[in-house]
Amino acid sequence: MTLQYIELTDLKPASVNVRKHGAKDIADLIPSIEAMGILQPLLVRPNCERFEIVAGQRRYHALKHLAEDNDNIDPVPCLVMEDGDDAAAIEASLAENVARLPMDEIDQYKAFAALIKQGKEVADIASEFGVTERLVTQRLAIANLLSPILTLYRKEEIGAETVRILTMATKKQQKAWLVLWKSEDEHAPEGFRLKNWLFGGAQIPTDNALFDLEAYRGGIVSDLFGENSYFDNPEEFWRLQNAAIAKARQDYLNDGWADVVILEVGEYFPAYEYIDTAKEDGGKVYVKVATDGEVTFYEGQLSRKEVKARDKAKENGETAAPSRPELTKAMQNYLSLHRHAAVQASLLSHQGVALRLAVAQIIAGSELWAVQADPQKASNEDIADSLTRNTGVERMDEERRTVRRLLGLDSNEDETLVYRKDDWGKSHDLHGLFAKLMTLTDDEVTTILTFVTAECLPAGSALVEGLGKQLEVDMSAHWQIDETFFDLMRDKEAINAMVREVAGKEAADGNITATAKVQKKIITDCLNGTRTPKQAGWQPCYMRFPQAAYTKRGGIAAIEQWKAVRKHYR
After folding, report:
1. Rounded to whole angstroms, what are the CA distances from 212 to 142, 208, 249, 392, 510?
2. 234 CA to centre of own chain
3. Domains and CATH numbers, the chain
4. Which helix (H) or strand (E) holds 295?
5. What distance in Å separates the CA atoms of residue 58 and residue 62, rounded to the nearest whole number?
6. Across-strand partners of 43?
7. DSSP code per residue over 83-119
8. Which residues pair with 391 in a beta bridge?
9. C-alpha dihedral sign at 77, 82, 87, 93
10. What's the pLDDT at 21?
11. Which residues contact 300 (CB under 8 A, 6 or more apart)?
12. What are the CB-based long-range contacts (under 8 Å, 24+) for 487-490?
């Protein structure tokens, strides 16, 4: 039995369901689901391409009723039965667990928070009460609320929707909202108006500036009936605010913090998912930026997952892997294949090196010395398509046709000369090839040996890194930045560092909180001439030999490989 979140349209009542009457008597359920969501998952089982409901028809019909006025009904938490599961026993167990759950949101929060302090995980709490992990995290978010707001909710002076929205507000915003609530002349926004009030970003108070107001080139509007004043030029404010955030980030790093993570503007920081951790123990700094410009620095934070991984690594005497590597595995695959192709092509012009490499592999062996050609496996179609535009691949294809002609083989054949591991049942006529090689000159044999050596160079290996350095490979001769590169590049800190290289420090600092999409557009504009680049012919440091990184987090295979072998290369 597994917990899954299933779209409402993929559910249907089961014909064998024991509830034949009253299944659509849902008047009492609708207010509860609107206020607190689905507490008890539906019990379902697969039926063709959909799922049929074994238990939970009234909850299903209540959700369908709510869906008539709301197109954004979330996927429904369901326990999917497997063969042999006892439906009656499961339903009874769920009913018993849910009966133990406090029915007030604040009481639920207190119960869950107490268990979190005892070291329990969200998944454990959800399992204990028979509810979804999402409901647990929603209740834990109440920890962000000020006590007077909780009191208003307890007294039923404000509704559940207002409380939920306020969990996303900063303490400063909550205090401002309470002032409006207590005012006889003002009205505190609720519901949809509250969300606009929090996230509309129409007014940016001068109190939120991290920079000296004298640096601001624009007007400041004062509130004639209060003590607040506001910036009239949001773009100018964000330019200065982002530069100040960038400086604060660098100051933290200089002070020895392991990492400084800047959240996107308006992004919520779930503090309950993190544990206070000292700088010396790897604590990080998280920077939350509100839509009205308010900046909150959460110093000394580490996620529960990171703490668990760190403690486990200590027990095993190992170093914990970075929780947020700079490059995804797909991006590293993309880079290694492009770099591999470029080194292969460069090797063709260094026959002496290729000959010596072949002898070294015969003596010491290598990842592919079986002998077999590298499979060049791309992890998705976009990477495979991108690779076809690498001129190194084109050069290898041309040389392959030349070599096949020298050996008297079909020069139109596209498959590798040396068969790959998966080419079962295929083989060359060893004696026929040997007889042919005996008729060729030393130069022709060396040409063939050089090509075969390049074809057997293992992608993503330390050999690629070493040869790239030895041959002084220039990636710009074989590869140009493309859409696939940008699609795979996810790390905002690294992207901002690229902006700094190609567009300059002011552009990077001024857009430090901008989305990755916006920052990638700046890089693209510099490369296509729309914007004047700081550095002509720029290429990311990932395409250098040896490969470099934009952050200190580690986790990039090519860099670790180079560290292991660089003592052998000058």
Report:
1. 35, 11, 17, 52, 16
2. 29
3. 2-99 (3.90.1530.10), 145-199 (no CATH), 204-323 (no CATH), 329-477 (no CATH)
4. strand 295-303
5. 6
6. 55, 79
7. TT--HHHHHHHHHHHHHTS-SSHHHHHHHHHHHHHTT
8. none
9. negative
10. 41
11. 276, 277, 278, 279, 283, 284, 285
12. 487/382, 488/328, 488/330, 488/331, 488/334, 488/382, 488/383, 489/331, 489/516, 489/520, 490/328, 490/331, 490/516
Beta strands in 384-467 (DSSP E): none
pLDDT confidence of residue 375? 83
Burial status of residue 290 (CB atoms within 10 A of its CB: 0-12, 13-18, 19 or more)? buried
Q: What value does the CA radius of gyration of the chain take, rounded to a whole number of Å?
A: 31
CB 521 within 8 A of CB 287: no
**Residue 201 burial (CB count, 10 A):** 15
pLDDT (tens digit per residue) in 349-394:
988 778 777 755 545 445 675 677 788 888 999 999 999 999 999 9
Strand partners, 262: 287
For residue 352, the 8-state DSSP code is H
**Whole-number pLDDT of residue 496:** 95
Its sign, for the CA torsion 486, 487, 488, 491, is: positive
> Does the CA dihedral 321-322-325-328 come out positive or negative?
positive
Q: What is the pLDDT of residue 194?
A: 83
Q: How many residues does the chain have?
A: 570
**C-alpha span between 508 and 528 (Å, rounded):** 18
CA distance 525 to 531: 5
One-character DSSP codes across 27-64:
TTHHHHHHHH---SPEEEEEETTEEEEEE-HHHHHHHH
- Find tokens 């060049």 and name the residue: 376
Orientation angle between helical segments 329-347 and 462-470, nearest 10 degrees? 50
Check if the beta carbon of residue 557 is closer than 8 Å to that of residue 565: no
Q: What angle do CA 327, 328, 333 make, to 5 degrees?
A: 95
Write the DSSP symbol of residue 205: B
**Residue type at 384 in one-letter notation:** A
Q: Which residues of the chain carry a pLDDT beneath 50?
A: 18-22, 224-226, 362, 364-365
Say whether 284 sits in a helix, a strand or coil.
Answer: strand
Q: What is the pLDDT of residue 20?
A: 41
8 Å CB contact between 442 and 318: no
